[in-house]
Structure formats: C-alpha cells, structure tokens
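Retro notes, item 3 of 5
We never archived the inputs for the protoporphyrin IX containing FE complex last cycle. Fixing that now. Sequence and ligand:
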Amino acid sequence: MYEWIKAFHIIAVIAWMAGMLYLPRLFVYHCAAEKGSIQSETFKVMERRLLRAIINPAMIATWILGLWLAWLGPDSRYGWFASGWLEAKLVLVLVLSGVHGLMARWVKAFATDRNPHTQRFYRIINEVPTIMMIGIVLLAVLKPF
Ligand code: HEM
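Structure as it came back at the time:
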C-alpha cells in the first residue's frame, strides 16, 4: 500500500513540476505578444488550461498523497512528522505552493491584458521552482537529518 501511494505521489509531483516549469515560459512569450493579437489570445487559452487541467489538480494530489505518506510513516505513530528532513521539505513545498498561487494570479492578470511584470521578471521566476525542486528531492531521497 505505502509503495503504491509513493508511486502516485511521484507521478503527481512530475505533473505539478512540468506545469510549474512550463507556465513561466508561456508568460515570457506572452509578454512579447501584442495585446489583442491571435498569439496573445492563444497564450491565454494555453495558460488557463495548463493551470486548471494540470497544475491545480497535480498540486492537490501531491499534497494529499504526501501527507498520507507522512502519516503512515515508517511503522507509523505520527509517521515521518517528527523527522527533520520532512519539516525542511515542507518549508520548501510551502514556498513552491506560494509561487503556484502567484502564478494563478498572473494567469488572471494576463487574461484581462493587465500583466504587471516584464519578460525578465518571468525569466527569473522560472528558476524558483527548479531550485525548490532540487532541494525537495535531495531532502526526500537522502534524508540528511
Ligand atoms: C506537498 C507536500 C509533500 C509531502 C507532505 C511529502 C511527503 C513525502 C513523504 C512522507 C515521502 C515518503 C518518503 C519515504 O518513504 O522514503 C515522500 C516521498 C517523495 N517525495 Fe514528497 N512530499 C510532498 C511534496 C513533494 C514534492 C513537491 C516533491 C518534488 C518536487 C516531492 C518528491 C518526493 C520524492 C522524489 C519522494 C521519493 C523519495 C524516496 O522514496 O526516496 N514530494 N514525500
């Protein structure tokens, strides 16, 4: 049972991360598209679908399955919750979830042609999920503390 939950946790993580890495790329290209153009309208559809069909459900599944694993723990009784690596991982996952929330806000801003940021801003933001992901995976696999 535990191994099955872990497998689906990793599948959900892959889907979440794929979207979190792709969405800021769409924002970068969207910045360069003229407002009202066909390209701009196409980006709006792509961003909305990516957020609603992939990123949102994948994040919810990652959280539910991750917390379930943490609860079942190795041999349970508060599971992994007492472990330092999980606490550190949760901090990084909360940052990742915060960036997710900001991205949802920017999808809405682009949808009404009111994007508040530059291309350069989205290029920099693009790196945040990558850095969080590296830290999270190292903590989950190596469990250094
Ligand atoms: C949303 C909150 C999350 C919680 C509560 C959580 C919790 C857990 C727990 C308890 C395990 C089982 C560890 C084991 O059995 O060795 C696990 C495995 C794992 N998690 Fe998460 N996780 C979360 C999010 C994430 C995210 C965002 C990523 C990647 C970006 C991730 C990557 C992994 C990986 C790669 C494993 C497999 C580790 C291994 O088997 O060695 N998790 N997670």
